[in-house]
User: Fold these one by one.
Assistant:
Number 1:
Amino acid sequence: MKKRLLFLIPFLLFLFAACEKGDDDEGGGTGESLVFTSLLADNDSVALGQKIGLKAVASGYKLTYLWKASLGDIFANGNSAEYSPTPCSLGKVTVTCTVTDGNKREQTKNITLVVY
C-alpha cells in the first residue's frame, strides 16, 4: 500500500502542475487589446504587370498576419504585403488581411483594388 501511495503522490503533483495556465495558454499573455486600425494600399488601382504595396496597421500582443487575395498573387512579410495581379484578375479584386494576437483573438479587414 505504501508503494502505491508513494507512486501516486508524485503522479498527482505532476498532473496538477501540468494543468496550470501559463503565458502561452488561451487567455494567457496580456490584457492588451487587439486593435486593427486600418488596411492601406499605395493606390486603389493597379495595371497588369505592376505591383501595389499594402500595409496593415494594428497593435496588440504577439501579432501575426494572414494575407489573401481573391485573384492574383500576394507576397507578404508581416504587416506589409505586395499585390501582383495575374492576367485572369482584371476587374475588382478583394485583398483580405487577418490579424491574430497571442491571446488568439483576431480581426479581419478587406480592401478592394481595381486591376486594369
Number 2:
Amino acid sequence: MATWLFEGWPDDEALETMTLAEELGVTTMTDVLRFKDRASLGDHFRGDLQVMQTSYDQLEDFVLALAESLDDPSENLSPESLDGH
C-alpha cells in the first residue's frame, strides 16, 4: 500500500494497493489506484496504456529471471542486467 502524489496535480492523491496471489503455481498481480473521486482521476490514464503494459511486461521478465537465478546463487541479478531493459 502506498500513497501516490502526482507532481503538478496536488489534489489528485491516490491510494495504491498491490496484491500478489498464487494459485496452482501461477502468481497474479492486482494493482488498484483509488482516487478520492472521479474528478481526481483526471487525465492520468487517458492515453496509450501500452506504456503501462510494457512496464508490467518488464516486471514479469525480471521476476522470471530472478526465479531462474535462485538455481544459481552466484548470478548477480539486477533490473539493469536484463537484456533490452
